[in-house]
Each structure stands twice: as C-alpha cells, then as structure tokens.
Design goal:
Number of domains: 1
Strand content: 5-15%
Distance between the termini: 46 Å
Helix content: 55-70%
C-alpha cells in the first residue's frame, strides 16, 4: 500500500472536521498540529483501524489539509449565506 492509499472514511472525516472547525475553531488548530506531528514523525495513524503505519510525506499531508480545507470552505459559505 502506498502512502496515498487510505479508506474513504478518512477522507470524509477530514472534510467533516473542516466543517466542524467553522463552528469550533480549536478543531482547526488541533487538526493542523496533529497532521504536522504525523509528518514530522513520519507516520500515519488510522484510528478507526487501530493502526500506525510508517511513511508520510509533505504531499500526503497537503492532501489531508486540502480535504479539511474543502470542508471548512463549504461550511463557511453555508454559514454565511444561510445568515443572509
């Protein structure tokens, strides 16, 4: 399995965490710290599967942050257009 292979549930969880961060900003900071820690330690944590795998890189981390950013942007737009 290469570093980019991951179950869909993890992509969806990154998007959901991004959306939640619009309402609870601490999630934004914790997510960034968590992803950078995985990158620095060169590991990937699969919490739902109880696994820690060796191997991470900046491109993979950027992809996870982009998924988070997508969720954040969608929720931000929803929140602000809904209030008008």
């Amino acid at each position: 399995m290469n570093v980019y292979d991951k179950p869909l549930i993890y992509t969806l969880s990154h998007i959901v965490f991004g959306a939640v961060a619009v309402y609870y900003p601490v999630v934004l900071y914790l997510f960034i710290i968590y992803q950078l820690a995985q990158l620095i330690l060169n590991v990937r944590v699969f919490g739902l599967h109880g696994e820690i795998r060796v191997g991470n890189n900046p491109l993979h981390t950027a992809r996870k942050l982009a998924e988070f950013g997508f969720g954040y942007a969608a929720a931000y737009l929803f929140k602000h257009y809904k209030s008008e």
